[in-house]
Amino acid sequence: MQSKELFAREEAVITAARNRLAEPFASEEAQAQFAQLLADYEKLLKITWRFMRLSDRNEREMAAANDRAHRSSAELRQKNQELESISAKLSKYLSPQVYASIFSGKQRVELASQRKKLTVFFSDIHGFTQITDQMESEDLTELINHYLTEMAEVALEHGATIDKYMGDAVMAFFGDPESRGLQEDACACVRMALAMQERLSKLSEVWRNQGIDQPLTCRIGIHTGYCTVGNFGSAERMDYTIVGGNVNLASRLEKDAPPGGVLISHDTFALVRDEIPCEHRGPIRPRGLAYPVETYLALSPRDAAARGDGKLSLQLAHLALDADLNAMTPQERSEARLALGRVLDQFG
């Protein structure tokens, strides 16, 4: 409705007043007062009309602004949904800890690194080359994806930062970008490795029912030491990973691990010995290393019970003996043998 249509009655009043003003009045003073009253009424009506027109224009502008705001809001929601979709897809290519640190702003996406003491993990399937020769590529792909999915689930449950997959091999580490302390990181890594071996034994039963006759076993190597961790590569393409001699040592321990076993270095053993049963395996000289490395086999509670915990404790009035045979080094075993021999010799 036009603004003037709203004032039809007022316009009629003005028309009638103008007609009356053209007629004789009782006095000039009365006519002048009537004329002034009509002028004031017309002025007030004009002002009111202008306000109404301004109000109509403001209303139209507000409606247009609201429409633009709604369109912008819809576009913003769509962009947010697209961004969330892209972020969810990108997260599949990054370890959850790295992804969270980047998107929370804790870590900058730039070529940078730092030295840090980490517990490094390597694993691969024993005899994988032979398995690949016996399977069709489609079946092999399904097997590997199933295996890696299960291993990744165990790794994330224990808080590992998954570095990369290399065929059937898995590389992971504990201590960055999140850490629960050096000892707890090492314990979590070894517990994860034992849980992976347990999960793989169950998977082997499933795969055997699917026609894979050869049992699949996994070798795992773990070492704790200083590594360089951060973003490596170029400004256009970078990887968040770890490098250094201690990373290579963990990889070589995995090569020397027995099938189905978790082989750890003395550096890792020193951190987990009070929490996880281990069996001393003696020194090895990994290829490319100039010195031997003392190694230990981490045991699950079931394996430890089957082998005995290797601990001996005796408390008498004049004799105390407390030994952890599995934890003793060869030198400690030799010194203990000599000391016990001297004691027995004195018994006569």
TrEMBL record:
Signal peptide: none annotated. Residues 62-89 form a coiled coil. SMART domains: CYCc (SM00044). Keywords: Coiled coil, Lyase. It holds the Pfam family Guanylate_cyc. GO terms for molecular function: adenylate cyclase activity. SUPFAM superfamilies: Nucleotide cyclase. This is Adenylate cyclase 2. It comes from Tritonibacter multivorans.
